[in-house]
Amino acid sequence: MIHRALENIMQDKLARKKVLIIYGARQVGKTSLINYLFKNKDKTLWLNGEDSSTRNMFETISTRNVSMLFSGTQILIIDEAQNILNIGLQLKIIHDTLPDLQIIATGSSSFDLANKINEPLTGRKLEYKMFPLSFSELVEYHGLFEEKAQLNHRLIYGYYPEVVCNPANEKEILNNLTSSYLYKDILLWENLKKSDRIFKLLQAIALQIGSMVSYTELGNICGLDNKTIEKYIALLEQAFIIFRLPSFARNLRNELKFSKKIYFYDNGIRNALLGNFAEINLRNDAGALWENFIISERIKHNNYTQRYCNQYFWRTKTQTEIDYIEECDGVLSTFEFKWNPKRKPTMPKSFTEIYPNSTFQVISPENMDEFLLQSPKVANFKELNP
Question: Against a cut of 0.85, is the pTM above it?
Fold first, then answer.
């Protein structure tokens, strides 16, 4: 199954001859997308940053030998580019010397690649994020009715491409991913020989989705100090395994200003970390799974439709809260996520009083398609199988 979420966006940008950077966790389909886009293109050079010969070649790149190294090449593709020393400076040299050469680089960790390219490639690059397959992509593939019928399954096993394509082997695939492969870049970056503490930290986070997290509490569970916990969480976020949702606070004195929640980009990874693949009707965390699913899908939707907004949750010291807030062009839209559609919460009065122009909506499985499919700019996803 081919990941097509970025296909139309990238096709539009190729003519601009910018360096295209695609970030995404391992196994989400970055290489498959690049293969699909350029499999029939002549004069394409494919390189992999995990290959020692590629790394050695880039160490020798200079303005004097660039033309010789890439003579006759029209498209240069570098997979796992974060493994190449000084990759940003090297890409700048190539781009400036050969401006008509289209360069595409992928990375499974932004903490390394982004640091290496941001300054050297200022004004020369376009960056995109790729996630596991999304609800909207699968709707385009086999229809809204069928995909909503799969919701209970998606809440447990998630949307990694290999998982979706192998419905009889989900547990094995997810367990292999979470054994260490998914955070391989972090282990290399931190020179960690054992992943025990990273794994324990992820398990602790997995148990707290939908709740505010305390670095002190996580540190006590994992046997790590607060500074190390914060660093590891940042690395896990930049490896596209988890993401943080900050608290919204502007005017109320009792709003929590520095709190945060942490979610997983994929429910299947979260459940694999806990070793719990029980059916949704047998679980006591169905509400948390729904919240993680719907927020992560909204993050994908906003990215792929190029809808730019800030994202928060809201809570006061008296424990009044709102699950999710988007701030777009100064407009506040608030949402509550309920797995049981019969539950009909209302917007907290204290919020409406201080933010009177905000909107409020309850999202359940009954109306999720309104939340995840409708947009002023909808990507034209093509059939997922080539």
Answer: yes
